[in-house]
Amino acid sequence: MNLAEYLNSKSEEDLAEIAELFISSGKFASKDFINSLSKKVFIDIPSLKYEIEYFAISYEKYIRSGRRAGSKYPPKIPIQNWMKFKGIPLQFTVPIQRAIATQGIKSFDFIDYYFTDQKISDLSKGISELLQKDLTQTIKTSIE
Questions:
Q1: Residue 46, CB half-sphere, CA atoms under 13 Å: how many?
Q2: 114 partner at 20 to 30 Å CA-CA among 1, 26, 39, 56?
Q3: Per-residue pLDDT tens over the stretch 49-70
Q4: pTM listed for this prediction
């Protein structure tokens, strides 16, 4: 397995585990968030730079940081999508928006919860092993 394959494999695992964490935490409100999870892997071998960038739907910031009490009304469409998913009649849209605006929403920083020091250490170890293997192979090839 090369570095690109490793990073793609690990980032796919991350997305699946983040989706599972989100569902198991009871924060699962609709499939919009989970379906929006994606990633992009960047690798620049000559400079030994690599990056995994994760993406999610725009309201992900409210999931991670919550919404303070006394804030403005949340957008109508995501609330209505959630209501449809939960089977709540749409006539309750404004009262639910008002409740969220006045009471706020508790945060769930799933990124910090998921990407622990151990997770990052394991990823770094795997990358180091692959880079060492790739470098050794490159040196052997250039000598022959």
A1: 0
A2: 1
A3: 788 888 888 778 888 888 899 9
A4: 0.69
For the beta carbon of residue 11, count every other beta carbon within 10 angstroms: 18
Q: Please tell me the distance from the alpha carbon of residue 144 to that of residue 12, in angstroms, as a whole number.
A: 37
Residue given tokens 């804030």 in the structure block: 71
As a 3-state breakdown, the chain gives helix, strand, coil percent values, each rounded to 5, of 65, 10, 25
Q: How far is CA 57 from CA 29, 32, 36, 45, 119, in A?
A: 13, 7, 5, 30, 24
**Residue spans per domain, the chain:** 1-66+106-134, 67-105
b/e 94-133 (16+ beta carbons within 10 angstroms → b): eebbeebbeeebeebebeeeeeeeeeeeebeebbeebeee
Q: How far is CA 85 from CA 34, 38, 100, 106, in A?
A: 14, 22, 18, 20
CA 22/CA 17 separation, integer angstroms: 8
